[in-house]
# Entry
Amino acid sequence: MEDPKTSGLRVIIIGGAITGLTLAHCLDKADIDYVVLEKHQDIRANIGGSIGLQPNGLRILDQVGVYDHLKKWRNDTDVMKPILPDGFCLGYPMTMVRRAGVLDALYTSLKDQSKIKLGAKVVSINRSLAPDGRLRVDTEDGQHYTGDVVVGADGVHGIARAQMWRMMDQKKPGMITDQERESMTVDYIGIFGITEPIESITDSLNPTEMYVPSYPKANWFVQAHVDNTVTWCLNLRLDKTYLLREFHRWSPEQVSEKMKDFLEYDIWGSIKFRHLWERTTTVSAAPLYEGLMTTWTFGGIACIGDSVFKLTTVTGKGANISIESAAALANTLHQLSVRERKPSNAEIQAALAESVEGVQRKLRTVSAVSYRATRVCTLESVQEWFFFRYLCPMTWRILFSVTFNEFRTAETLSYLPLPHRAIRAAERLGNAQRRKKMMIGLGALIGLGVCYYCFPL
Ligand SMILES: Cc1cc2nc3c(=O)[nH]c(=O)nc-3n(C[C@H](O)[C@H](O)[C@H](O)COP(=O)(O)OP(=O)(O)OC[C@H]3O[C@@H](n4cnc5c(N)ncnc54)[C@H](O)[C@@H]3O)c2cc1C
# Structure
């Protein structure tokens, strides 16, 4: 059998953010040759606010050895602890981490950082005319890279998706429908801020809790951090639904002007938004795209992460499902790489198609839930307000248990052992479930005994 190292499968990853760097770790562990092309010079730039990491994403990051590197950045929340009988979330917390912190942990823990090419903006992808028929990726600075698989982990405006569509159009015009081209829309804008350390405020905000003040058409997610900074995200309903190509980014002046409308809104206790805004040092605004593309792969290109699905920040699932999508793809690439002979292009393409299908299936439900939850949190209508105000508090346990089941059955890397945290938590959960079944059995037996005693035949 050919050694995986020499099987010659080479992967080009476009985009060195959460999805791309996670895939890089996964391929590294699978001994698959890869290169990451990232257009920015500084991969760890402090762009964005906090990212919600959940047990499904963290378990994969633990498998590849990144979890412990996140420790200094994490703010674990207590919100979901009561759900499991033993108080654990599959061995992992629900946690909020600065986006820059996640990138830092992913980048610094990578074994071979020379595989990450910075300042490498991809401009085109073509199938090469060389006899091996590999894909050729060209960057703006005139470099070429060839590989058997090109992965688009390049976000919502990614080039990989556009190049894939171009290749599809060349093969058969109309393969990508107009409906699919327009399937990402924008109803909300997210304003992300980070404050300087403010002890007077962080004294009143518990870092293990997230504060979600909701008002009609606007809601915040506010998180205090262990370093006394506060990250906040304000989700604002826009005046109408925009298509991906229609929405123009807000300038810093536009953001500052808009924030004036919200200064007196209550955040928590005596804290008003004004108190955060006055001490905010970094602010960015990003449209909160929503949508799920149906075509993720074609001709050896596979798109994952934000390039093919977008959820608002409300359920905090975006980054986690992106991590899952990287793991699912890595499982497929690993299976291809350990074959006795190098797979043909047709075999690679068939395997990629099968690989993305599972993630897509899961995402249909997750997207629908995220869509509704976003509107509930911004009290879009009387029904949504009623649901948030009266039904949510009564049903939150059920809602969280559903989420739990998702975590339990979520994607993991099939070629790496499960981390001890996940195994221990699964054992604890199994024991608790067995105990529960025994108690139910015992209860039934006692009930039958009592019946028999009271009503002998
Ligand atoms: C600036 C920014 C801030 C964000 N802030 C938050 C936040 O505060 N909270 C939250 O929950 N989510 C945030 N997100 C979204 C979150 O990061 C993603 O939903 C999730 O992590 C999945 O990301 P991704 O890696 O698939 O895509 P992205 O995070 O969009 O990363 C795509 C990467 O591809 C690179 N790239 C794009 N085009 C090219 C090209 N032609 N050539 C080479 N490289 C290219 C980009 O530079 C980028 O590094 C933010 C995203 C961005 C881009």
Q: What stands out?
A: The longest strand covers residues 230-243.
